Fold each of these.
Amino acid sequence: MIYNWMAQGFIESSNQNEELEDIGESYFDELVRRSFIEISEEGEGLFKMHDLVHDLAQFVASSECLTIKSTTKSIPERVRHVNFDSSLHKGFPRPLLEVKKLRTIHMGSGFGSIIPSEILNFRFLRVLVFFGLNFKVPSSIGDLKHLSLFCLARNRGAKTLPESFGRLEVLECLELVSFPSCVRHLTALKELKVAYCINLVTLSESFASLTSLRMVEIINCPKLFLPEGIDRVPIVKINGRELHRHGLIRSTVESSSDDWRTIGVTIQDHQNEQDV
């Protein structure tokens, strides 16, 4: 959620030495402290709202946030953030094309197997989320110059990303099913999440160019070796568990077991190699 705030420009810093992520975390903690949101016990990274708070949020944001369903007949001109309901099977709603300043699109399973080319008409898009779909990412994705958060999760059709993807000027959160070489151009990347890449062996030499990384998360990548330089990343998570190990040079994940001792992370330093 913090990266969504950052992508939309909701977080600003008056101190050049203060990271936007840290400011966002303080905002989040304040919302929790005031009981506007609660941490959910159902899984890591989930939270919930009281019904009254949720109703108030919906009322306040009703003109800018919209869930598009098969029954949706009109779309407010001021809408900025849209979510496509899984019941939507009739293709891209034409009235949405009249919205000139759309900032966010969330599209999940049930929409179809072809990414709507109309999405590329929204030049001001900052957040683009595809979840559980089955299509290739179009080469023109690199034309979305304002895109700041891109999520491509459980997309069976996207084996890699086009080289034009690397032309994006600002991208601070990335969730991939494979690791393309063009990522080396994304020097502003703050968070990298690689999930369900069962045949992915390496993150390639591109990793060394990602000098702004603050967190790397690996989920169910049984053959993956982490590259040199992983030790400079403040937070490294593997299958939900965070590694705090100085001098980490190279690791591999061999199991997705819930038992930490059987995950099979191999830590190799200059002198020896040991299993955790």
Amino acid sequence: MIIHERIAMHSEDDKKKLNHRLRRVVGQVEAVNRMIEEDAYCVDILMQLSAATGALGKVGQIVLENHLKTCVAEAMESGPSADRDQKLEELLTLFRKYASVID
């Protein structure tokens, strides 16, 4: 994993919204765990897993959109060429990883 200098770009409102969504995902995963412990019907477990996966994917989408609108936009508008190249490479890596998750 490559570590880059980062600037916090999430507003307090964004953080609250993301934390709310993540708490919901945690609740869904805990529900799956209970369902497994209680020998719930497999289809019901799979439906709950699907909901948790979708909710977590939405968190990732929000973070990616924020990254594009802030960090990447700033690098493209005013950053040196090396910063722009770095952000583009970062995006390509993210898209490759994200695509493998949703395949």
Amino acid sequence: MYLIHTRLACADGADPLDDVAQRVLTAANADDGVEHVSAHPDATPHPVLALWMVAPTLREAESRALEVCRRALAASPKLREWEVLASGAAFVGPYYERLLSSSGLD
């Protein structure tokens, strides 16, 4: 399973992202591999969608997550003013710092 973060932006005055996580889940097909979606509308500098994806590779998970998010934005009149800025695997710094410190390479 992969955690993919998708950052969003919109024009001023766009509808808030109240139910965006549910809208993304609704846009997903069974073959997309979306297990869970959570929204972080107050993240700065841009709102973030977190998608937990089941896929054979990271590249496939990133590609599917991007497609699902774009599909959800296009399908919902409420979300059409929003756009995807970036989408990719979430970097979890503390995890990698722990790995480095336990290896003696830090």
